[in-house]
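cron nightly-structures :: item 1 of 1
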Amino acid sequence: MINKPAGVNTHAPSPYAGEGLFEWLRNREPRWETLAIIHRLDKETSGIMVFAKKVEANRSLTQQFEERRVKKTYVFLTDGPVPRAEFTVKSTLVRAGEKYVSRPAHAGGVEAETNFRISPKLGGHTLVEAEPLTGRTHQIRVHAADAKMPICGDRLYGGSRALRLCLHAYRLRLAHPVTSQPLVFEAPFDFDNDPRSDLRARLIDAETDAYRIVHGASDGWPGWYVDRLDDFLLSQCETEINERQLQFLKSIPARGVYHKVLTRSVRKTQAADASPKLLSGEPAPERFTIVENNLRYEMSFTEGYSVGLFLDQRDNRRRLLTSYAGPQLTLFEGSLCDREVLNAFAYTCGFSVCAAKAGARVTSLDLSKKYLEWGRRNFELNGLAHAQHDFIYGDAFDWMRRLHKKGRQFDLIILDPPTFSQSKEHGTFSARKNYGELVKRALPILNSGGILFASTNAADWPPEEFLGAVRAAITTARRRILHEQYAPQPPDFPVSRDEPAYLKTVWLRVSQVHCRPPP
């Protein structure tokens, strides 16, 4: 039983969109990999949902919903005139673009029926209980509008402006799938909560204090991004912030608030100019720590454009800790204990720390000595003896060739390169042009049956093309993909039509192609 937050889909609308709640659960823990969807809630609707974990439960619950033996009760707020204390709306719903409209019941039409009951006033609004006797898309929203009491926040159907769509699945009555015992579940509601912070509170673990608070247009702020980093806030956009943004930042508890003006010419910018500037509150120490997945990482606002960790890879780092990438793709049975891992673009070694914490022996490779030293400090923060692992300074292409000549083999290789980079050995690297070549260079040092993690944040590169480049490189190298798990950006980086996904990551188990011996 799930109390779904507003702002997340029941399931992903496409394979490469952000995860819906269904995918988020299945990709998180092995015990949920066989979940089945029984019913759905709209993206902006919150409240109680049931998923089936076993085939028997799926069969029983599906039958109960089909036979209308499950009683669903919703609550919503309206500021429209309420016609009477209790009434029923019945119609046929027909799709008209993004909306549904009511039509009189007619032969061949699929009927929708909703009972409404008025509850006490809440802060000048009326609280209404809705019991849908059928389960049509947007049924309650359409019928509420038909009754001249549109739901607050439902701009599609004429509702007044609100923080969110004020519709919540409050109660679910059903029979236990095995014992047939009557069960009643309720989920509390609070329409005054900011849906953005509520979503983060529900889907981000308590042992993590670094995450995105505002993700551009998906959170109603086009072009603006705000991260929480322990007790500090980091604001980012292409201009200085305005008064409205500043007031929003001041409403969030924090020791200090920083702002960084984003620029496309990062390599031409001096570290002091690229570093975030203090807006309000107290300055952060030169080095401070955040906690992610119960591990500690050093951060700094004085080192230039990046502050020390890319928060959008949090879930992928967690997959190293759990050795679970998704259904049918356990990385290695048990854990990464005693496995050889190569982190080819290590930066400050966030992935490396997780792999080492899971028991692997890690080789961290990067073009910056400064960042590798930062990585060693991250190892120390987590009680890991960095002397037991390798830290290599140099070009990834050159060093993968040298590691191959030395006979080094790895069970897992992590490829998370910058979109663009420059080195003396390889020259200019562009993810879109050179990713296939990068994969080909990695494959000779990947054990048969090993795991390849491939990632890019090239926003203008469609995921289908990225995956095509990775697959083609593997096939050309006479290797075979045994399992593949695509992983989109985490839920605090929500994907929407106005804020498309930019991060593309995939976990692949790759084997050798065994040629049949000649007769």
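cron nightly-structures :: done
The longest helix spans residues 463-476.
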